[in-house]
Amino acid sequence: MRIRTIAAGFAFVSVLSVGGLAISGIWSKDPIPPGLAAATTWSPPQLPLPTSIETETPQVAQTRVEPAIPLQSMPRLEVASADTLLPTIEPPLSNWSRDIATGETLDTVLEEAGLSATDRAEVALALGAEYDLRRLRPGHSVTVVSTMDGSPRSVALSVEDGVRIEAIFGEELATQVVTPAPDFITSAGEAGIDSSLFAALGEAEMPARFAVDLAQMLGGIVDFRREVTGGETLRLLWREARVGEDRIGQPELTFASLEIGGALYEVVWPVSGSDRATIYVNGTVLRVFAQPVEGARLSSVFGRRTHPVYGNVRMHTGVDFATASGTPVQATAPGRISFIGWRGGYGRVVEIAHGSDTMTRYAHLSAVPEGLAQGQRVAAGDVIGRVGATGTATGPNLHYEVLVDGRPTDPLSDDRLAEAAESEADDTAALLRLVEARALLNENLGSDIAETTTERL
Fold first, then answer.
1. Does residue 189 sit within a domain?
2. Average pLDDT for residues 443-457, to the nearest whole number?
3. Alpha-carbon dihedral of residues 400, 406, 411, 414, nearest 10 degrees?
4. 245 pLDDT exceeds 50?
5. Which ranges carry the M23ase beta-sheet core domain (predicted)?
6. Which has the least CB within 10 A, 79, 161, 357, 421?
7. Which tens digit of pLDDT belongs to each residue from 320-351?
8. Which of 176, 178, 103 shows the shortest CA–CA distance to 136?
């Protein structure tokens, strides 16, 4: 009962409170003053539109009025692609090189360099087309240039005389032969002979092979074993081909002077444009030797020797001149062509008859001139073939023989051909060559050779 009385009291109070708030709200709302009401309805007056003001603009005097340039369509600029502007970057390369050792083959060396069997076979075919790989020997070298992943770029084979054969890898394997252009150096030397020519040259530090050249020219005139007793003086003039510090090929004698028994023997070897070597005694022409190959090196003389191919001792029936393949071969004396063709180990041969008893043979030829025929007459110096390696030969050379009544004789001592060649020689020109050779020897030695006067000078 008490609880109901309290709840009724709270309800009554709440009604009274709401009603009081409503009444106070109505009573407290006063009217708005007129000035304040007018202010709430005010807005700013509309601004008038701007009027244009005319002013005088100063004019700039113009002395020349250029015509209007007509507009033309400009050509479209071509922008190069980025890949054409950037340089090609070559991959880094590695070089591998070493000399060929005794008993090694090219394939062995290339395998060590890392080339595959296919690449090795291709390189061997390419290099073999320019050089006989059977002639490889210690001292030749192989250089392989490859990328870092082992792909070969080039293989170079360096052989004698500074020649380099290169196989270059590309879309196709290409081969090139690089032959250096040598410088020719003239040298001179003087030696006293005590026992032999070989010993004298060795002591004087001159090439010992010059003893063979002297034997070639003077062997049929001077008996070196009997007439050389010691105390003789030998003076030589020669030239060498060099590329940098390396000597190319063999040195070549150009002049020799040898005093024996009170006589002065001199030999002038042929120079460019001359095909004859001349021997003088005391300033007088003794004999003329027409060389079959100009400027060639005498590589083997007449007589018994160890055969370079078969290895046994055999009679060498001629003399050999080593020189480049294709070098012209000249007739050493006037005669008639008696044979052109092949003769076993001689290979391609040309034979010339000089009278009824003497014949010269030129062997291992690579070619003969077109039109050269059996029965045709030739003069000394006429080209009758080209140096080659046909038949049994270890490399390009000319095998030259002289046969008298069918028997081989030493081409360097037989007088028949020398007399035939001398008949065509110009003695005045030969004597002038001797004077020039003496002067050049004196210039290089810094000494004087006793001049031998002759009535014909």
1. yes
2. 51
3. -160
4. yes
5. 314-411
6. 79
7. 888 888 889 988 878 899 999 999 888 999 99
8. 103
Threshold 0.85, pTM exceeds: no
Q: Which residue has the tokens 């004019």?
A: 59
3-state secondary structure 61-120: CCCCCCCCCCCCCCCCCCCCCHHHHCCCCCCCEEEEEEECCCCCCHHHHHHHCCCCHHHH
Q: Where are the beta strands (DSSP E) in 227-318?
A: 232-243, 246-260, 263-268, 276-281, 284-290, 297-300, 303-306, 313-316
CATH number at residue 123: 3.10.450.350
What is the tens place of the pLDDT at every residue in 151-168?
888 999 998 877 889 999
Residues 287, 225 share a domain: yes
Lowest mean pLDDT of 17-21, 264-268, 347-351, 366-370, name the range: 17-21
Token couple for 315? 């009679």
Assign 3-class secondary structure to 333-388. Answer: CCEEEEEEEECHHHCEEEEEEECCCEEEEEEEEEECCCCCCCCCEECCCCEEEEEE
Element (H, E) at 330: strand 328-330
Buried/exposed code over 34-71 (b: 16+ C-beta within 10 A; e: otherwise): eeeeeeeeeeeeeeeeeeeeeeeeeeeeeeeeeeeeee
Identify whether residues 326 and 404 lie together within a single domain: yes
The verdict on residue 418 lying in a domain is no
Specify the DSSP class assigned to residue 161.
G
Amino acid 235: pLDDT? 92
Q: Given 178, 208, 233, which residue is the final one in a domain?
A: 178
Is the predicted pLDDT of residue 50 greater than 70, yes or no? no
Pair 381, 420: CB distance under 8 Å: no
Handedness of CA 382, 388, 391, 393 (dihedral sign): positive
Same domain, 257 and 306: no
pLDDT tens digits along 219-230: 667 777 778 777
Q: What kind and span of H or E run contains 11?
A: helix 2-27
Instruction: Assess whether 385 and 325 both reside in one domain.
Output: yes
Give how many domains the chain has, as a whole number.
Answer: 3
Name the one residue in this structure whose structure tokens are 């060929």.
Answer: 100
On whether the CB atoms of residues 391 and 364 are closer than 8 A, the answer is yes
Structure tokens at 216: 């070639």
| Both structure tokens of 17 | 């409170």
Angstrom distance (rounded) from CA 182 to CA 162: 9
Instruction: Give the domain extent around 101.
Output: 93-178
Q: Which residue has the tokens 């005391």?
A: 282
- Same domain for 396 and 334: yes
DSSP character for 140? B
